């Protein structure tokens, strides 16, 4: 059986928390992973807090305050733990900040593991983006694409082997419509690109309202495609290749790549086995000429085959799930698809379970909300026709964001060379659009407002990239980069400890993001880290004793090491989310 992906957040991805948990566990006879580590509500109480209630069973019962008092009294001092006191049912622990700062910086710069190797090579399949061929990548595709990309990076950081899957929508009746449309009007389009293909599709859908027979004509073309008709196959392959080439241009723009781009058509010869398995289990039933599987508790059955013998995407999804398990032996298989497909995936996974596949429980729908446009600064220059009306092209939204940030960067850097300005504007514009789609909780709708998205302040991608560029600028001004050991006793201010403490938390936020498939956990962590860094740096501007580039060389080196640790962590976190590193801004 394949190793499993985490089902609960690891308690001890924070190295300080791990050491405290081990010490507490030894006192009460518990497992370290059962010891919960929190933050005290008042930092004056301590650096970490341990609630006693979850440990009552291991300790043999009693009252939580009494257990907290016992733990506080028996915790060994020395090493990391300096002191421990009980406040009601909590144990407040004070740590040796010098040692904790060293742990934080060592992890950030790579001298110690930043994120624990939880995955140990277990496989996680991530199905994301997955557009339909013969259509442009519209802006609404960005959520699946970039949420999926972030999950790929997060699971990879945790030690999993990730399979990046782009399950192209390249099969089904809609492609019969396109083939029929091309047969009727293809000669009117001398160049067959994605724009022409989209226009043909829209034109055919509109004509179907006037000519009811066109629906049957489209189904007939798809039947020819499924039956292997040479003309249908050749034309379909042209449409597919044209679409994929266009998609890859956009994916290159976003820094997204895939391991598996087989698409629905790949499973054409694998669907007969699914039909046999369903029939063998007595699950296939006829309903109005179609073949369906009735799902317990659902009024709507899962449609497997139409009355005219063509398959549907449920059939192909069943075949794809079986293929992925046989090929990759996944510990977890994630489908990053909008929440409107919730019923489909519920029925899909239930059907897999009804077929007797125990791994069906390791399949998970990762739903997300809609993208809505708002704000006076968002133009409509990217609107294209579609079956649902005008859409915004993803490439044009990105181009508009680049145009929005370029003059701001130029204003702050009047001497910047044009080529460098363009490269940075591109990185910041792309980052702005990407971050706007990963910073909200994924189940929430995104109200896209260009002015807010491209702001250099607030909860935006450009703000984080600006903070990263500031770290680079400090090192440039100092004329040195410090990534080696320094005298950590010189980082004694509360503002410096706040930065180091936040650095310690990176691993646990990455692990929590993986458990819940929530990249926004990492996004908000980076905003918090940037906030702590900015508060420390701003205090240094106001108070000469806190300046990074100060006259005292040992203090200067220690502070530069902390700056470098922040820079490395911001870079790694932004890269996870699909934002490029920016060294000037």
Word description of this protein:
There is one protein chain. The chain is α/β, with parallel strands linked by helices. Among the domains are: 15-95, Gyrase A, domain 2 (2-Layer Sandwich); 396-577, Isoleucyl-tRNA Synthetase, Domain 1. 51% of the residues lie in helices and 10% in strands. A 4-stranded parallel sheet has the order 5-4-9-10, with helices on both faces. The protein has a 3-stranded antiparallel sheet with strand order 1-3-2. Strands 6-7-8 form a 3-stranded antiparallel sheet. A hairpin with an 8-residue loop joins strand 7 (290-293) and strand 8. 46% of the residues are buried. Residues 375-389 have low confidence and may be disordered.
Mean pLDDT: 92
Sketch the major β-sheet.
Answer: 4 strands, parallel
With strands numbered from the N-terminus, the spatial order across the biggest sheet is: 5-4-9-10
The global form is flat
The CATH superfamily of the domain at 396-577 is known as Isoleucyl-tRNA Synthetase, Domain 1
What is the architecture of the domain at 396-577 at the second tier of CATH? Answer: Orthogonal Bundle
Work out the number of β strands: 14
Work out the helicity level.
40-55%
Radius of gyration: 28 Å
Q: Indicate the CATH topology of the domain at 396-577.
A: Isoleucyl-tRNA Synthetase, Domain 1
